[in-house]
Specification:
By secondary structure, the protein is mainly beta. It contains four helices and nine strands; from the N terminus they run E-H-H-E-E-E-E-E-H-H-E-E-E. It binds a DNA duplex through strand 4, strand 5 and helix 4.
Length: 195
DNA sequence: TTATGGATCTTCT
DNA sequence: GAAGATCCATAAA
């Protein structure tokens, strides 16, 4: 099923395009209890120009500095005091663009996920940006990890030839630049956080 | 099924 | 000092 790890050139392209093409890709995660595989089903693009809700809009700070690395670097931040969100940096160094991973579908290692996240319904394991960080044990410690070289977290292609039915819509949970069509998800997938 | 408020804390003004 | 790229429990309808 799995083909190979995504290369640096995949990430160093237009952020909206990368956000869309990340759908269906496999996220590999190694934990102290074993390996977890999941499929990305929902993403959001955050840009450097005319995007007031992007963390990079105010310029480079201590918090968002990973976002200014080159494409293929992981950007994790703390939010609301108790949660984390996982982003994939895109484009070139100092650009300040990234893709928020909003939801994934568990493929294997579900027992491990269930160890990190106790919920009644399976779909609640990973159907939100902070839920999937809990499920995969992704923390601020993973900020600046390199998806090209890391053995703990990276992305893979599949040899699945099916054409994904992608929905493009507005982003969730923000108060500025709310009308930009920068959210993408796989139509009909039950792990998508919101319709 | 949808709406609402509380939890909680780091970062930046 | 206030604001969050959220989640969950509880209440209402």
């Amino acid at each position: 099923m799995l083909v190979k790890r995504l290369e640096k050139s995949f990430y160093r392209r237009d952020t909206k395009l990368v956000a869309k093409e990340l759908l269906g890709k496999i996220l590999y995660r190694k934990t102290e209890y074993g390996e977890i595989l999941s499929k990305i089903v929902e993403t959001e693009a955050y840009l450097s120009c005319n995007d007031e809700s992007s963390h990079s809009y105010i310029g480079k700070t201590k918090r968002n500095s990973a976002m200014f690395e080159e494409g293929g670097i992981v950007y994790v931040y703390n939010i609301y005091g108790m949660y984390q969100c996982l982003n994939i940096v895109t484009s070139t160094e100092n650009k300040g663009e990234a893709v928020l991973i909003r939801a994934v579908e568990p493929i294997s290692g579900i027992e491990i996920i269930s160890n990190y996240r106790k919920v009644k319904k399976e779909k609640d394991l990973t159907n939100g940006p902070s839920k999937l960080c809990q499920a995969l044990n992704i923390t601020i410690e993973d900020n600046f990890q390199d998806l090209i070289t890391s053995s703990n977290i990276f992305l893979m292609n599949t040899n699945n030839k099916e054409i994904l039915d992608v929905v493009t819509t507005t982003r969730v949970g923000i108060t500025k630049s709310v009308d930009l069509p920068l959210r993408f998800y796989i139509k009909g997938n039950k792990f998508v956080s919101k319709r």
